[in-house]
Design goal:
This is DUF6533 domain-containing protein. InterPro entries: DUF6533. Keywords: Membrane, Transmembrane, Transmembrane helix. By secondary structure, this protein is mainly α. It has two domains: about 120 residues, no CATH class; about 70 residues. Helices cover about 75% and strands about 5% of the residues. Strands 1-2 form a two-stranded antiparallel sheet. Helix 5 packs antiparallel against helix 6 and helix 6 packs across helix 7. The longest helix is centred in the middle third of the chain and has 37 residues.
Length: about 240
């Protein structure tokens, strides 16, 4: 039996509302985390001498804070169509620029992470950097050719129109490589510890090296790619 046009509209709107709930909840969680950790940021970052690591932390923290605020503005339902038509392009362009910069920060961070994990060895870090830089490059191209528009009904807020799907191939590839390199290093450290008659918990080593977080990230990518429609995992552990 063919679905009626009204049923399609209702289903589309229900999916949109569900997505909005997930999105706003995830952003509220991010803002809550920012406020409850601000005192520690002041103590451990602002109270210390500025270093490359603290600069990277500050850039990542505040670029993502701006992204969160702009995304809430972008999703705001209170604009009239005329206001959305004039305000969407600048909001979307600024937001997309920040998102590109955020992915560049991620590329630098994951590269330095592998570099540090492998005792300042650039050999495993360079392929990670090459793959990670493809994401901001691809997003930059998509944003250049895309057109900021008011989100089509039943959505509200702003959107960007493009015929290109950015995909997640490069993100998946470098996440797998990071996980592989991390597990290799973890196994090497565990072997060295056992040779000294030290018996570390494998779980402790995995948590220390962040491998479990990488597994969560990969799980999010798989779920977002394979499960159609909204899913809460994609909103709450998005990379």
């Amino acid at each position: 039996m063919q679905e009626s046009p009204n049923a399609k509209v209702i289903s589309s709107y229900a999916s949109f509302v569900q997505g909005q709930y997930y999105s706003v909840a995830a952003r509220a969680l991010f803002l809550w985390d920012y406020f409850v950790t601000f005192d520690r940021e002041v103590e451990y970052v602002w109270g210390q001498k500025l270093s490359a690591a603290s600069l990277l932390f500050i850039l990542n923290r505040y670029v993502n804070l701006l992204i969160t605020i702009l995304e809430l503005i972008e999703q705001a339902p209170f604009q009239t169509p005329a206001i959305r038509l004039s305000s969407c392009p600048p909001v979307v362009r600024v937001l997309q620029s920040l998102l590109i910069f955020a992915t560049f920060i991620v590329a630098v961070f994951v590269t330095l992470r592998v570099y540090a994990t492998w005792s300042r060895d650039w050999r495993p870090a360079l392929p990670i950097l090459a793959l990670a830089l493809l994401t901001p490059a691809a997003n930059m191209y998509i944003d250049i050719i895309g057109t900021p528009i008011p989100a089509p009904r039943p959505s509200v807020g702003c959107a960007i129109r493009t015929n290109i799907d950015p995909g997640r191939a490069t993100t998946t590839a470098y996440d797998f490589l990071i996980l592989l390199f991390t597990l290799m290093k973890t196994a090497k450290v565990r072997k060295a510890a056992l040779s000294l008659d030290v018996h570390p918990s494998l779980m402790v080593l995995l948590l220390r090296d962040g491998a479990l977080l990488l597994v969560m990230n990969l799980a999010q990518i798989v779920v977002a790619a394979e499960v159609l429609g909204n899913n809460f995992i994609a909103f709450f552990i998005s990379p």
